[in-house]
């Protein structure tokens, strides 16, 4: 199974050059059963990553371009009156898929953003009092532009907390960018990517991730990290229990990919930024969420051994 995971990541890396760490983080998010938020400038490869992942996993894939005039029904679907039968017939929206790319999610209004809350948390959609189930493998990859750009609506805390991880792709290295420039049609390359996992194998791998052992000392370390965020005067508020569980689940998946049956402190430290940063806000700038500098400070202040 791990060989298939490595092949999967290699295949995605063949169209998203020089982003091995971010690809691995995305796979960890998928294996942990969460949803992924990618925040970066336009044109950095966010859509390429989502499309390539869907292709190598064999997921049904839908992309929604969020705009300021979009309505919840444009995502969830709506009941349309059938004049022949005299009944209303529910027409499913693009959310009814296995991998949904919510592109530029912060360019739409909070009302439309919140339409995804139930789908992401419960994997179901309720429209006009009727509940419709989504696939158990339902996975959202949302992209957002930096909130400093014009025409954006910052995601509220409740929406951000639904994302297991937030990552940034960043500019490519010079070598990776050269490879991209001479590489040709990326869309065509994605279309030719092989399927590396099926749903049965994905389910088995997820079970394997959950069986990874976590020592008491690791749990103690995670609790010290959480406690620091709740007690620090530098932070507006601390990490919730959901955030702590998210960190442990991701650490298990990371350890599984690395070929280990147990979590080590380095797993926790390496995942702290993508799992915690979007859940933290500094007291001196309540409009800005935590970044790399804040995570480094937390790691420096909290000892691995209590």
Description of the molecule:
The two termini are 36 Å apart. This protein folds into two domains: 175 residues, Rossmann fold; 91 residues, Magnesium chelatase subunit I, C-Terminal domain (Helicase, Ruva Protein, domain 3, Orthogonal Bundle). The protein is of the alpha/beta class and 306 residues long. The chain contains 14 helices and eleven strands. Helices cover 44% and strands 16% of the residues. Strand 3 and strand 4 form a beta hairpin. It has a five-stranded parallel beta sheet with strand order 2-5-8-1-9.
What's the arrangement of secondary structure elements?
Blueprint: H1 2-13, H2 20-31, E1 36-39, H3 46-57, E2 61-65, H4 73-76, E3 77-82, E4 87-92, E5 99-103, H5 110-113, H6 117-122, E6 124-127, E7 130-133, E8 139-144, H7 157-160, E9 165-167, H8 174-182, H9 186-191, H10 199-210, H11 216-231, H12 241-257, H13 265-276, E10 281-282, E11 285-289, H14 292-301
Parallel strand pairs: 1-8, 1-9, 2-5, 5-8
Antiparallel strand pairs: 3-4, 6-7, 10-11
Helix pairs in contact: 1-2, 2-12, 10-12, 12-13
